[in-house]
Prior knowledge:
Blueprint (H helix, E strand, L loop, with lengths): L1 E3 L3 H13 L5 E3 L2 H10 L4 E5 L7 H11 L4 E6 L4 H9 L4 E4 L4 H15 L7 E3 L2 E4 L4 E4 L2 E3 L3 H12 L7 H8 L10 H13 L6 E3 L3 E3 L2
Parallel strand pairs: 1-2, 1-3, 3-4, 4-5
Antiparallel strand pairs: 6-7, 7-8, 8-9, 10-11
Amino acid sequence: MLVVEDETLLADSIAEWLRREAFAVDVAYDGDAALERLGVTDYDVVVLDRDLPVVHGDDVCRAVVDSGAETRVLMLTAAAAVRERVAGLALGADDYLVKPFALVELSARVHALARRARPAAPPRLSRAGVVVDPARREVYRDGRYVALSRKEFAVLAELVRAGGAVVSAEELLDRVWDEHIDPFTNVVRVTVMKLRRKLGDPQVVETVPGVGYQIP
C-alpha cells in the first residue's frame, strides 16, 4: 500500500504501524511523488492526505479513480465538517478519516479496504495440509499450530493464495516488502528457508529453479 502525507513524522509513523500489521508500505510526501509511484505500482490501498503540496490530494484521488484500478483510497484530512467529508467521498474516495485519529482505527479501516481491493477469499486458506487464517493471523500444519513471524506469515499466505501456481521472488518482494528493499537481496530465500523449517517435514514449499516458489 501507499501512504501519502506531507507531515513527515506522521507519514513515517503510519507506515511503521502498518508494517507491523504485515503490510508492504511505500511512502510519498507530496502529490507529485504519489502519482509517480502510482504510475509504476499497483497498490491495494492508498492512505491519502487531502491537503498535499505540489499536487493536491484531490487530484491524486481523481487520478486513481480515472485509472480504473481496483485501488482503494482512504482520505485523511484535518477538516471535520460534513461538507468536507462529502466532497472527499464525491471525488471517489472509499473512506474518510479526520485528523487526529487513532492508529488502531486507521489500520482497521485499511484492513477493510484491502479486503475489498482483492477478490473475495474464504475466511481460511488451505493447501497441502497447511491452513492459513488471515483474520487471526494463525497457521496450522496438519492440525499443529505453527508460530511464524509477520514476513513468514505474509509469504506463506501469498503461496497458499496462489493455489499451486508459482510465485516469483520478485512478486513476493513486491507484495510482502516495500520499495526500499534491495532487489538483489536474498531475504526471500532466507524467509522461505525459515518457513520450511517451521512447517516441518515433509516439505510443502517447493523451489522451481529460476522461476520461484510454489505449494503444489
